[in-house]
Amino acid sequence: MSGIVEPTGTETAHRLPDPQDGTGLPEAPTGQNRTIRNALLDAALEVFTERGYAEAGLAEIATRSGIPLGSLFQHYGGKRGLYLALWEEFREEQERRTAATLSAERDRGVDDPITLFVAGARAYLEGAWDNRRFGRLLVEDDGPTGFDALRRQWDRAWVRRNARLLEVDEKRRAGRVRVRVLTTVIGGAARELGDCTDEGEAREIVDEVCGILTHLSAAPG
């Protein structure tokens, strides 16, 4: 979980296919289905964060949600589908947050790449704090089989987007390394925020990391 996400319209999210049916996540829910799915996701997040993904039981998730177990399978196919839906929801919210921040900064006339990058980083980290329940789950590295590969795909896409935002020449290895280091710093800080319980400490972390990013973002020489 790292990087500044700025949708470009040219890259699509990669979904991890289900090995049993060859499909990705369920289609966007509407109406009553949305209510059912939200109840299932809320319950799944509770159980996952309390017990870990591996030890979480579907029966307990269904009981806490008040939704029959059969409906859980119908909507998500099992634990794996629930976890991936939570990740997708988290990722999309982070994209919306950082994109809105960058748009607002540009509307104010900000065009300096480093200033924009750090503003996006702050928005992303504040989102990691606001959504820290799922962040705590990510800190544990306890997810479904294949999830690490999926997260690495997103990380690579975020590095490319950060490079464009910082106007770094991706053909130069030194430039790519600099952007990857910056992205890794953000990801590490997001993980710390996921494990943080004090708002004052969380704000201190965000401020500290943004200062570090400002220093590291400057091109050498």
TrEMBL record:
* Chain intervals for the UniProt region annotation (Disordered): 1-32
Q: Which residues form the signal peptide?
A: none
> What positions does the domain HTH tetR-type occupy?
34-94
Q: Which UniProt keywords apply?
A: DNA-binding, Transcription, Transcription regulation
GO molecular-function terms, A-Z: DNA-binding transcription factor activity; transcription cis-regulatory region binding
Residue ranges for the DNA-binding region feature of this UniProt entry = 57-76
What Pfam family is a match for this entry? Answer: TetR_N
Transcription regulation recorded as keyword: yes
PANTHER family per the record?
A: HTH-TYPE TRANSCRIPTIONAL REGULATOR BETI, HTH-TYPE TRANSCRIPTIONAL REGULATOR RUTR
Which protein are we looking at?
A: AcrR family transcriptional regulator
What is the scientific name of the source organism? Streptomyces collinus
